[in-house]
Amino acid sequence: MTAKPTLQDLPLNKEYLLKIAPLVSAMRVYHEHSTVGLEHIPKSGFIIAANHSLASYDIALLMASIYEYSNRIPRALIDRLFFKVPGLGQLMEAFGSREGTRENAVAMLNANEILVVAPGGMREALRPSSEKYKIIWHRRKGFVKLAVETGVPVVLAACPAADDLYDIAPSHITAWAYKTLRIPLFFAKGLGFTAIPKPVKLTHYLSEPLHPPANSKDPEVFAERVDQFHAQIVKRMEVLMRETAKEHV
Fold this sequence. Notes:
The protein has helices at 14-20, 22-30, 58-70, 88-94, 102-110, 121-125, 142-150, 172-181, 219-245, and strands at 34-36, 46-50, 75-78, 98-99, 114-117, 154-158, 167-168, 188-189, 203-206. It has 249 residues and is an alpha/beta fold.
């Protein structure tokens, strides 16, 4: 009798991955999810940088789409807040995610994995609906440094419609709670006045691979190259979000 895979084995087992993710499959149907530009995916390791919505699960739909297309399991870096909820961090790890540390990121890229990041983090996710479709990446350079250090390309993933899943009210309490206590406190509603997400059609748009400049052991040169590549990425993502958002307004 074949032993049942452990939690650690699940991310590498296609059949068990499909069985453990019925909710993801259901949400893909609910949102008529699709991904445009899958042909841009490199065959070796790379970083996917996606916008961060309040719902967050739209990134899981993207990961499922990439898996279905390439038979490769993307690995998301997740906030340590997930591990403060009993069992949630472990469940996310079962889907291939890892805590967002530099060590984990480097290890995955060195193993030619697909690394999924949402540079805007919770600050971007908690934006009020009056600021939807905007990205907050201007001070987020960690993933860019990783790309330069490891030499892997960055593929951008824009899904503007993910900001339409919930109506998020502006609140000084939200900003204070996250800045002071690191608690994602927000005021939002989905379908009607419920927590059910609206049945919005979700489409991810992937950019062409953006290749980083050569690494440098000179700190000043390295910092300059990171800044230049970061500016290129932010500008490209802003254009991608703006152009694709027009299809959903």
